[in-house]
Write a structure and sequence with these properties.
globular, 0% strand
Length: 69
């Protein structure tokens, strides 16, 4: 069962940016996620961590399925 939602509305760019930083080993030592309650910060991070537990072919399928507005 796939635990990554490819419909993280308004978070696709953040997701890909963090993924690129991690892929190229440029991820900072710490990142602060802040904002109003209910915006989806926790959900975003849970999906991001679940994404990195997938194998490479499953990751490609997720990126193909991203919906951009």
């Amino acid at each position: 069962m796939n635990k990554v939602n490819n419909r993280l509305y308004f978070y696709e760019n953040y997701f890909q940016s963090l993924n690129n930083l991690l892929t190229f080993k440029n991820l900072p030592q710490s990142i602060i996620f802040s904002g109003q309650a209910g915006l989806g910060k926790k959900t975003f991070l849970l999906h991001f961590f679940a994404f990195h537990l997938l194998n490479s072919s499953e990751k490609e399928d997720i990126f193909k399925g991203f919906h951009y507005s």
